[in-house]
Amino acid sequence: MRRSQVIISLFLFLTAVILIGNDNTMAMPNFARKLGVECAFCHTTIPKLNEVGFKFRAAGFRLPDEIGKPEAKTFDLGDYFSGRIQARYDANRMSRGLVSSRNNRLTFHELTVYPVTGSWGKYFSSLVELSYLPEDHAEIENAYIRASRGDSKMFVGGRVGIFHPFEGYGASDRPVSLSRPFFQTNGANFTQPTFFTPWNFDQAGAEVGVDYGRTSFRVTMFNGLLLREEDGVLKPFAAQGGVLNKATVTPAHNTPDVQMFFNQIIHEQGGAISVYYYHGNLGLPINGVNSVAGFFRNNFDRVAIYGSYPIAKQLHLLGGFQSGRDHTVTKDTFTSRGAFAEVDVPINDYVTAGLRYDWFDRARDKKNNDLWGLTTFANVPIQNGLQFIAEYQHKDARFPVGPNRKDDAFQVRFIFIK
Predict the structure, then answer these.
(1) For the whole model, what pTM was predicted?
(2) What one-character-per-residue DSSP string does 90-159 give?
(3) Could you tell me the residue range of the domain that residue 314 belongs to?
(4) Which of 97, 113, 367, 408 has its CA 20 to 30 A from that of 86?
(5) What is the pLDDT of residues 356-377, one digit of tens each?
(6) CATH number assigned to the domain comprising residue 252
(7) Backbone angles phi, psi at 58, to 5 degrees
(8) Average pLDDT of span 215-230
């Protein structure tokens, strides 16, 4: 058994020992256990955060007015551990020209543990999120230390380690559906893949920020991405260190990426304006396929704006727009653009349904190079640790050469968190 598997197994065993027999399984259960609160304290529909939840996370898993104060509760190891398992059922149909395929399957999706997660002392906190996927694949999604100082009116903070790309709110927060907007998960492509996407990569980095009232601003320096050749194919990875260090032979090995994120809360139940900017660089293959001919440096930028507002208790509107710029091997530039519009309908505390429209053009200067889709979903948090999310998505992708590709995908995710 590999070392990573041994470490994951030990964490799973320790988590089970700590949590067994505890009946309080709400939202992120370790925080709920520590504070003695229910899901609605921090969430609208899980996993989306309300204003309290956003500030609780930003202040280091404590309420902002608790910054600088000693921990009020006696230390309990169970308040710093949580675990989650997920299974899924998929049914898919793909067609492109005369070629089509269908499949359906029930699979184990992911096992996740959250050890050493919570606030420590007066100013510090940590989040560790380790995921174990089928085929012996383990990954670090979060592993950082955060420091916060200030009070409920204004506090400053910083974190260092490995973390998700950004901490959003409202339309830029985690979605109620299973999938994210297309422009967050698809890369620009003029004559070859550019690999970077605003989501999907949990990078190593350092971040500083300030929260003043309902306004927050973050500046992050990321280690960026790297490309590794596996079976003759280049694949992107977050440069987290160790075996995922950047190779010195590429022209982008020593320059960090920079991200800025602004958020203005306008409603306590998920209304906000968010602005995102990312400037990065990545060595892309000159021949567009592999590393045989060497690399050229792609300096790229992404700018996005998100907006959301609950115009009624049972009607939340969300949307976003992104524009990107990349370089080609000839040092020319091209633009990519995308947008989404979404309607969420919280029917009651146990069911939220919704509909999202997506569009993403991988290169504006190239005809027939975009994709669009419709996604419908229903999120059912049972409020006892169980959650079911069902999603149907139709996606239509156009290509400069060849017929369009149509994908119809249905998925049900079964989630239990303890």
Answers:
(1) 0.91
(2) EEEEEEETTEEEEEEEEEEEEEEEE-S-EEETTTEEEEEEEEEETTTEEEEEEEEEEEEEE-SSEEEEEE
(3) 3-417
(4) 408
(5) 999 999 999 999 999 999 999 9
(6) 2.40.160.10
(7) -65, -30
(8) 93
